[in-house]
Amino acid sequence: MPALHLDIVTAERLVYSDDVDLVVAPGSVGELGILPGHAALLTTLQPGPLWARKNSEEVTLAISGGFLEVRDNRVLVLADTAERAEEIDLERARAAEERARRLLTEKQPTTDLARAEAALRRSQVRLKVARRRRAVEAPR
Ligand code: ATP
To answer: Which residue, by CA, sits nearest to atom 18 of ligand 1?
Structure first.
């Protein structure tokens, strides 16, 4: 069976491009597993971790939403933002989480609550992906 080719791009850059064996993506209606030979598909993504396996190695990224297309064993992810686990600035994500939580707690009339909720989700996905990587690298 031919491998899958995975490209993850944002408006700013090509974040990931490689042949992989499996992709698990945060589809807007739930987690989506894609193996070689998968039927053609176009779906939206929600904020969440996206991971891919190549041989026995796994790569995990934080995605904040976008689109995913599968066609002829090619998976194209057009992401709003995407960072590989090792690129995530943990302190920045923590600060973003705290800021969003404060806005949601204070509920000032000028606060765009939907925007604050979206920022909270993005920060939590980044924290989850970055912490998982740290846990894998430094098991207790
Ligand atoms: P912040 O408030 O910290 O800017 P944000 O959720 O508003 O967070 P986004 O608008 O989603 O940030 O992303 C803007 C750019 O910054 C994107 O290129 C994204 O990949 C990058 N980015 C955001 N947060 C982080 C982080 N914690 N580590 C590394 N890159 C990040």
So the answer is: 81
Residues 20 and 54 in one domain: yes
What is the CATH classification number for the domain harbouring 104? 1.20.5
Q: Which atom of ligand 1 is nearest the CA belonging to 12? A: 18
Residues 48 and 107 grouped into a single domain: no
103 lines ligand 1 (CB under 6 A): no
pLDDT band at 2 (very low <50, low <70, confident <90, very high): low
Domain C-terminal end among 41, 57, 85 = 85
The helix (run of H) or strand (run of E) holding residue 125 is: helix 113-137
Could you tell me if the CB of 126 is within 6 A of ligand 1? yes
CA of 59 to the centre of ligand 1 (A): 19
Give me the pLDDT at residue 10, please.
Answer: 98
**So what's the pLDDT on residue 139?**
65
Percent of the chain residues topping a pLDDT of 70: 97
Is there an atom of ligand 1 within 6 Å of 89 CB?
Answer: yes
Query: What is the spatial distance between Cα 63 and Cα 123, in angstroms, rounded to a whole number?
Result: 11
The Cα 23–Cα 69 span in angstroms is 12
Could you tell me the CATH number of the domain that includes residue 53? Answer: 2.60.15.10
Mean of the pLDDT values across residues 61-70?
98
pTM over 0.85: yes
